[in-house]
Design goal:
Strand order of the largest sheet: 2-1-3
Shape: globular
Structural class: mainly alpha
Distance between the termini: 26 Å
Number of helices: 10
Order of helices and strands: HHHHHEEHHHHEH
Helix content: 40-55%
Amino acid sequence: MDPAILRPGRFDRNVVVGRPDVKGREEILKVHARNKPLGDDVDLKQIAQTTSGFTGADLENLLNEAAIQAAKHDRKYITQADIEKSFIKVGIGTEKKSRVISDKEKEITAYHESGHAILFHVLPDVGPVHTVSIIPTGNGAAGYTMPLPEKDEMFNTRGKMIQSIMVSLGGRIAEELTFDDITTGASQDIKQATGIAKSMVTKFGMSEKVGLINYDDDSDEVFIGRDLAHASRGYGENVAGVIDQEVKRIIDECYAKAKSIIHEYDHVLHACAELLLEKEKISREEFEALFGDEA
């Protein structure tokens, strides 16, 4: 039930060094589309928007998979639908429509993803929603919520990181508000939210109590003979305690704000879950229509 779009890597909302921005992705798509006939409905600009974090190789793979989709349907040209199906396979994992899951699991997943989707829609810096699905994928996700970033930004902001944490917690909150129980499905969501909060405190100087000091002890450098598991921490127990308190404070505050928003849009939560149970996958237009005049 963890939203695939929030997993580290391809859909990480943080800056990914060395990956093309939206203009670069559009140009790369044009290059790889030169020898592939495209249908009139194919919008490379929109594809570039939805593929934030993709490398050039990912984009090439996307169009190659779309060409395979077209060939499977005996078409000599690629449609937007072919590309969207390929996007799910390349970016999230192949949809497993044959996977048998119980009605109860489907219902939990529908509410879980609806919780994420509501926050993507309401919060100004993390949406809008492109697709919501309760079709399981090959990477083990029971469903996914895909945003449509309107632009790439060089820097992340404190406000955007706070909103990303809130979105991560939306699935668990929706479960809590709807069922008299919670599941293990939010484990990756919680991990993602904790990672963002910890980076805010230890790496980006976004905690007044900790201050403008880098206490991030993670390192991508590996030295021969070094035992990374026993690497010494660069700060004492008192600082570690303050860091833990600040991370928990950020998570708790984000949880409270997110819960208030989902509770406010309780009618959308139920309507979205019901629609997902009926159709399994809904588009941006179908989702936004649930807000009525509020959209």
